[in-house]
Give the backbone structure.
Amino acid sequence: MLQALKHRGPDSTGFALYGPAMGDKYVVRFKVAEQEDAKKGFDIQHQMAERKGLVDERLLEMGAKVEARDQATDYAYRYTFTFDGDLRRLADFIEDVEGVEILSLGHALELIKDLGDAGVVAGQYSLGGFKGTHGIGHTRMATESDVDIRSAHPYWAYPFNDVSVVHNGQLTNYWSYRRALERRGHRFMSNCDSELIAVYIADQIDRGNDLEGAMVRSVDELDGVFTYLVATSDSLGMAKDVMAAKPMVLYEGDDLIALASEEVAIRSIFPHEIDTFDPYEGEVRVWQN
């Protein structure tokens, strides 16, 4: 589906994939440099090795037991580990290493994003064999921020497990809500308004709202024109603002839900004719496994 939307932006592609829940195990995806940084500089290879070594040391120091270490690229890693301590403190300690950014951390979510179109990124990270229940993705053409992994979608709602968001549109009250969420202790890794939605939803869930309630509230409180998808370990949701200026097409079958900004993406996975429709303005839907 993402490759069919390559024309919307070939700068970067991201996948938020949900595999089977790993029980008490965590899976973390992190990078130790940007792709462009890894290609230049006389000492970058040494710096990346040093940063990865510091991550290992800090996991050990905090009591995390790493069970598997996989290296996807020169600068991106996937670890699985067990840990029964303060997960936020652990995440903060890891990201305190200069140049290190956690892309996702949870029991089911694996967030992979990099420069290039969907085919390039999926091949680079060997995603063809990934088995899971649901996922969301994004192709991006940078218009207001840099072409780098940090600015690519989807966004994980640090430090909450397994919440990811992709978004099409613009939020006009971004800075007021960002400052309010920062005062509540949340951190932002980018200046992208899509990240605000991820943190907003996770904050609402953390305050006792269910996913659908949080999304309904977001339609009332977030200003601008937008559609977005949010995923958790067991749910997938969509929301559309009341002006409905941003497109979304939906297919709802007995065993498959598919949504996209353009119908061509959905039709790319079906060999036969299907019926699709556009959600209404202000509509929120949530599907649960």
In short: The two ends are 21 Å apart (CA to CA). The longest helix spans residues 44-61. The first strand starts at residue 12 and ends at 18.
